[in-house]
Design brief:
The complex is a heterodimer.
Chain A: H1 8-40, H2 44-75, H3 79-112, H4 121-145, H5 148-178, H6 183-215, E1 218-219
Helix pairs in contact in A: 1-2, 1-3, 1-4, 2-3, 3-6, 4-5, 4-6, 5-6
Chain B: E1 3-4, E2 18-29, E3 32-43, E4 47-51, H1 58-64, E5 75-83, E6 86-87, H2 95-101, E7 102-105, H3 116-126, H4 133-146, H5 150-153, H6 166-178, E8 184-188, H7 196-209, E9 214-218, H8 222-228, E10 231-236, E11 239-245, H9 246-251, H10 256-262
Parallel strand pairs in B: 4-9, 4-10, 7-8, 8-9
Antiparallel strand pairs in B: 2-3, 2-5, 5-6, 10-11
Classes of the chains: A mainly alpha, B alpha/beta.
């Protein structure tokens, strides 16, 4: 919808909600990057910064919700405008959850910094988080552009995140079986991997909102799901055909 | 990924009965064409809202449905409109009888300068619907009850209808319209002169009336169309742009012109 509203302040309200969402998305991307950096580089100070910055993400969610409710109450948006406002409410909630997961990674990184590093999980976690970070970025671009194709593509990219999660899960199981002293750090790492996997799911949730925003239809629930860790055992790790 | 209808893009179901069918309806005022090939199926016992900017043809179309355009000398209607399968523009059709079946309520309440009782009794009397005073009393009472006005006026039926409040006057006009047992009620901006409370009462009444009547309403209030109707038709410059389930029109209209209009953009 390129055309402007007759009532210009309505456009300003919608524009403001969009820029708040983009600001929130930008911070969340940074939070993901910094949380993983703090983990991999064992940077306690950066971890602390991530934990503190989550407050800003929470504040933005409240601001977006307030503005969205105000628009609903005062302007009674219709059609594409209505979808934009309702989607903003849901997307902000998804972003807030992603922010929480980043904060949780930062918390766990401070514990992990105190024990010797294990194996080569760092590069997988980094790759996984980079992927999710790019997905968040593209999801918000798709929101601004009302681009249903990117939204669709994002749902597929989440499959890659799931597969990396499976790999990490297996790897960490092996370390734990090798040496019981690895259990504490590996459990934290498992939660971290799960956090990133959940970030991917929330990003997919955003993509579904963008699809609805662009088309007015709710996407089919047939997206590929490749997270098999719920079925994995120490004895039988290859459950990719489950 | 295929878009999945979230249950809101329903096509008319098999149980839906077409009450009024219009096909390629064009209206001309002298040389000027006001309506272009409008084809709409209006469903029985549903509220159909006609929306669109001023001059889009929605009132013109509404007035075709009980041949109110006949009273304008320069107006000419082409195409076909059937009510329960019968062509209402057939030369054999008795227009007075047609208007008894298709009642109308106007923008400004226009009660006759007579008593409340006489306002409602007038129609049944001239159409010979009552054989006795008792009959007529019953019709007046039941019509006023259906219009949700009985409780407020039952003890002052002999007082002038013009002495009622605006909202009461409009409900009196609705009672007058339903006194002659129409099957369709046309409403041309029935609430535009009413305050929000009186509007809510009329809207509640419309919802109740739907069980027994087919209602077509022209309104400038988008929220009202969304609240009271099941189906919505959007007119623009004499064309019917989009017609569908009200849910769909207000959540995800298919045509950009509809989208621009209902979201308040310059069209």
């Amino acid at each position: 919808m390129d055309q402007e509203h007759i009532v210009k302040s309505f456009d300003q309200d919608l524009g403001q909600i969009e820029s708040l969402l983009l600001e929130m998305g930008g911070i969340v991307e940074t939070q993901i990057a910094n949380a993983v950096k703090a983990l991999v580089e064992r940077d306690l100070e950066l971890g602390e910064q991530v934990r503190a910055a989550d407050k800003r993400v929470d504040d933005l969610e409240v601001q977006i919700d307030d503005l969205a409710i105000r628009i609903l109450a005062l302007r009674q948006p219709m059609a594409g405008d209505l979808r934009a406002v309702v989607c903003a409410l849901k997307i902000s909630s998804n972003l807030e959850r992603i922010g929480d997961y980043a904060k949780n990674i930062a918390k766990r990184s401070s514990v992990l910094a105190q024990v010797p590093p294990i194996g080569s999980y760092g590069s997988t976690v980094k790759r996984m988080s980079k992927l999710v970070q790019a997905m968040v970025h593209d999801a918000l671009d798709a929101y601004v552009a009302r681009d249903q194709d990117v939204a669709e593509d994002l749902r597929l990219r989440d499959e890659e995140v799931d597969q990396m999660h499976n790999t990490l899960f297996r790897e960490l199981l092996t370390y734990m079986m090798e040496d019981a002293r690895n259990i504490t750090p590996c459990l934290h790492l498992l939660f971290i991997a799960k956090n990133i996997e959940r970030m991917g799911d929330h990003t997919t949730g955003i993509a579904e909102q963008v699809y609805y925003l662009a088309t007015g239809n709710v996407p089919d629930d047939d997206r590929p799901k490749s997270d098999y860790t719920s079925f994995m055992t120490a004895e039988q790790q290859d459950l990719s055909k489950h | 990924m295929q878009g999945q209808d979230a249950g809101m893009f329903k096509e008319p179901s098999v149980e839906d009965v077409i009450k009024i069918k219009s096909k390629d309806v064009c209206v001309y005022y002298a040389d000027k064409q006001a309506l272009f090939d409008v084809s709409v199926d209006i469903l029985a016992n549903k509220v159909t809202a006609l929306i669109g900017p001023s001059g889009c043809g929605k009132s013109t179309y509404l007035r075709c449905l009980n041949r109110m355009n006949d009273v304008i000398d320069i107006a000419r209607v082409t195409g076909e409109i059937t009510l329960d399968g019968l062509n209402i523009y057939d030369p054999d059709v008795d227009v007075v009888e047609l208007r008894a079946r298709v009642g109308m309520v106007f923008q400004k309440p226009n009660p006759f300068p007579k008593s409340i009782y006489e306002n409602v009794a007038y129609g049944p009397r001239i159409h010979g619907l009552a054989s006795s005073k008792t009959d007529l009393d019953e019709i007046v009472e039941s019509s006023l009850k259906r219009a949700g006005l009985w409780k407020e006026v039952h003890d002052r039926l002999d007082q002038p209808g013009t002495g009622l409040s605006g909202g009461q006057q409009q409900r009196l006009c609705i009672a007058r319209a339903i006194a002659i047992s129409p099957s369709v009620i046309l409403m041309d901006e029935p609430c535009s002169a009413l305050d929000p409370i009186a509007t809510a009462i009329v809207e509640e009444l419309i919802e109740e009336l739907r069980a027994n009547y087919t209602i077509v309403i022209v309104t400038h209030s988008m929220q009202q169309a969304a609240r009271v109707s099941q189906r919505t038709a959007y007119f623009h410059l004499g064309d019917l742009v989009e017609y569908g389930e009200t849910d769909q029109i207000f959540q995800a209209p298919k045509d950009e012109r509809t989208q621009n209009y209902i979201t308040g953009r310059i069209g």
